[in-house]
Amino acid sequence: MNSLVCYGLRGGVGTTSVVAALGFALHELQQRVLLIDWGAGNMLGLHFNCPLPDVSTTHAPELDNRIWQVLPDLHVLTGPAPDDMEQLQDWLATQQQGSQPYNWVLFDAATACRASILQDSLPDARSLAITNVDAASHVLVHRHMDTSSVPLLVNRFIPESKLQNDLLTVWRHRDQPAVVPVILHRDESWDEALAHKLPVGLYRPQSQAAHEAKSLAIWCLAQEEARD
């Protein structure tokens, strides 16, 4: 089982949309995928038309009662995130011992703080930091680069923007961490897909966004093959 923890360097960079799109793209590449909502907003299920979790209750349903089959071999575990990490570890181990184990488990961790909790409990998991290219993110990217080797995924890139091109060039000239070679460009399809409660690859499979999400999925598969 390959585990990937995705988080944003700051809020509003599109982490949840990317996780949904990546999960669907991996599924299209014949992978059995589980998406886990670990974000405080509990919005991942919205991309798959899952019922929104009741965040007002202090007693969340058991994990088995919060898993939704979107398509065969594509499942979503809706939030809120369990407080007991051992419970999550045991539950994941049980899933992998079944007749149809998952090839990929993707976590929408939302923030670096929430991601660090997962990374401490799942030492074999890889991480992916998502960011936009702007002046505010530039400061955070340099802090991130000074303390982490987690690769950076650029989202909502506008190639006509001189500022974005200049900043991206600066980021790419740093040794660590690597900027993921797949760039996700600004595309109205991302917003339209969320409005239709669908991942972008299912909503508009011929869009630039869908093709880039599939390229990201191929890159993730290649990284795991190289790791093995």
Describe this structure in words.
The protein has a single domain, classed as Rossmann fold. It is 40% helix and 16% strand. It contains 8 helices and 7 strands; from the N terminus they run βαβββαβαβαβαααα. It has helices at residues 15-28, 85-96, 112-121, 135-147, 162-172, 188-195, 200-203, 208-227; strands at 2-8, 33-37, 67-71, 74-77, 104-110, 126-131, 152-154. A 7-stranded mixed beta sheet has the order 3-4-2-5-1-6-7. Strand 3 (67-71) and strand 4 (74-77) form a beta hairpin. The mean pLDDT is 89.
Give the helices and strands, then pairings:
Elements: E1 2-8, H1 15-28, E2 33-37, E3 67-71, E4 74-77, H2 85-96, E5 104-110, H3 112-121, E6 126-131, H4 135-147, E7 152-154, H5 162-172, H6 188-195, H7 200-203, H8 208-227
Parallel strand pairs: 1-5, 1-6, 2-4, 2-5, 6-7
Antiparallel strand pairs: 3-4
Helix pairs in contact: 1-8
Provide a quick synopsis of the model.
This protein is 40% helix and 16% strand.
The fourth-level CATH homologous superfamily is: P-loop containing nucleotide triphosphate hydrolases
Strand content: 15-25%
Helix count?
8
Quote the CATH topology. Rossmann fold
- Total number of distinct structural domains: 1
Topology order in helix (H) and strand (E) letters: EHEEEHEHEHEHHHH
**Quaternary state of the chains:** single chain
Instruction: Name the shape in a single word.
Output: globular
Radius of gyration: 17 Å
What characterizes the major β-sheet?
Answer: 7 strands, mixed
Give the CATH class. Alpha Beta
Biggest sheet, strands in spatial order?
3-4-2-5-1-6-7
The tally of strands reads 7
Separation, N- and C-terminal Cα atoms: 12 Å
Q: Low-confidence segments, ≥5 residues, pLDDT <50?
A: none
Please tell me the overall pLDDT.
89
Label the structural class.
Answer: alpha/beta
Architecture in CATH? Answer: 3-Layer(aba) Sandwich
Q: Helical residue percent?
A: 40-55%
